[in-house]
Specification:
The complex is a heterodimer. By secondary structure, chain A is an all-alpha fold. Chain A is built from seven helices and no strands. In chain A, α4 runs antiparallel to α5 (95-105) and α5 (95-105) runs antiparallel to α6. Chain B has a single domain (10-155), classed as Ferritin, core subunit, four-helix bundle (Ferritin). Helices cover 77% and strands 0% of the residues of chain B. Chain B has helices at residues 3-6, 13-40, 46-73, 82-88, 100-127, 131-155. Chain B is elongated and about 50 Å long. Chain B starts with a helix and ends with a helix. Classes of the chains: A mainly alpha, B mainly alpha.
């Protein structure tokens, strides 16, 4: 992940993630289980709604606060690189990488739910 | 418009009080978490950690009052039930027996979450032109960042 090359599209996506993370800071908790239910519902979710579900469920999945920079920051944190790698891997259906990325940081008890969320992330990269 | 009305815009106060309630809920859960850790911490760093967790829950207990009273001043009811607060809080209770290091890690997560939540509440207050709530949230954010720093220093 250290050699991840950031393209312009990655930065555009990252800025969306950062703006979303800033927006949802004062929102109530969204459990992984609830996030999983929301994302699995048989309704067309907007790309921004999928992104919000992902961003709000990540702290519980990681078991810690995420380092997501304020919009406009040039420095890309490790967590942001991880997120970019995850979304890029989902978008090219590289599920071995998705599995590795999820297993490397997501808490064991949340992995199953997180895989469900991850499988829907093509919607935000499309 | 006088100074009081200037900070109590009825059209915008629901968004602000909902956001304050989020901060209040997380503060309440963290108060219990800190008291739990204060009672149960063990290990070589018992004395400083026992004291630090006490400092945290004492500060947070007072803060709950300030946040709830600000909500009342804005004209909203405060749902003071623990069940409601726990259901909204991004910080979770802890019923497991943790080591001193695990307690520091959990409390650091709580403090960083609180700092982030209050930054968000402050943004909402700014958007609604509520300087008093903004000031309260900035102060809370500073305190949570200070506690985060203290906790991180224990892990270095």
């Amino acid at each position: 992940m250290g050699s991840l090359t950031l393209h312009k599209s990655d930065f555009i996506f990252l800025e969306r993630v950062r703006a979303c993370a800033k927006e949802v800071r004062a929102y109530p908790r969204l459990d992984m289980f609830k996030a999983c239910q929301l994302i699995s519902m048989d309704i067309e979710l907007l790309s921004s709604e999928v992104l919000e579900i992902l961003v709000r469920s990540l702290p519980q999945a990681f078991g810690r606060h995420l380092a997501i920079q304020p919009p406009g920051t040039l420095h890309v944190s490790w967590d942001e690189k991880w997120l970019l790698s995850l979304v890029n891997s989902v978008s090219i259906s590289d599920y071995d990488s998705v599995k590795f990325l999820v297993k490397s940081v997501v808490k064991k008890n949340h992995r199953r739910d997180f895989f469900t969320i991850a499988s829907e992330l093509w919607k935000i990269s499309a | 418009m006088d100074a009081l009305e200037d900070n109590q815009n009825p059209n915008s106060s629901i968004e602000v009080t909902d956001a304050i309630f989020q901060g209040l809920s997380e503060t309440a859960v963290t108060t219990m978490l800190a008291q739990n850790f204060h009672w149960n911490v063990t290990g070589m760093a018992f004395a400083p950690l026992h004291q630090l967790f006490q400092d945290i829950y004492e500060d947070h207990f007072d803060a709950q009052d300030s946040l709830a009273e600000r909500t009342r001043a804005l004209g909203s009811f405060v749902d003071g039930s623990l069940a409601s607060m726990i259901s909204k809080s991004k910080i979770e209770e802890c019923s497991e027996r943790l080591t001193d290091k695990e307690m520091i890690k959990e409390m650091l997560f709580a403090q960083e979450t609180l700092a982030s939540t209050f930054a968000g509440v402050s943004d909402i207050a700014i958007k609604n032109g509520d300087k008093i709530t903004e000031d309260l949230c900035v102060e809370r954010g500073l305190i949570h960042e200070k506690f985060s720093w203290f906790l991180r220093a224990h892990m270095e």
